[in-house]
């Protein structure tokens, strides 16, 4: 099942199981679609729970419980950002342009990483893990670029949350990509990844609100069509 929703400048990642395009940067959704959207998102959550149960079942077969949440990651602070003391329409628009550029690679269709891991393990085919490594590389590049940005002072909190939403899942994805060398940690990380992945969505939603609060209007060409696979 696949569904498209309009999105501007940001991606929606609802726990790793999303195919859609959401309106972003102040573009309002039609009120008559709200009920349908709620039903749609509930179906995504149901799918995520099913996948989480599959991973948990594999752990239970080994008599294990997930502990990957203890896996350390770099937690960035506002002090790690390059803060621009000037808050003006020009600096905010430049910030939006930079965010657009950094998030554009997420336009590309990519599979559900947890499903990829489970399928590779079931098939005993390590080459099937390649999409996970591709996601790791994409997240690392985006993280590096986000840390280079000149961030308007009043956007520092929402920006650092976006940075950390990527930072916290990269180690989990690396463990998932290494599942054939450490199956236990890979499965644990897959289960934790399902819980943490939605933080990227909420972080981008915060930036969406930031731009809306500044009453910025962006041209149609400043939109991204970002897809996530539900199948």
UniProtKB/TrEMBL annotation:
Domain of life: Bacteria
Protein name as it appears in the record: Uncharacterized protein
Naturally occurring in which organism (per UniProt): Candidatus Vogelbacteria bacterium RIFOXYD1_FULL_46_19
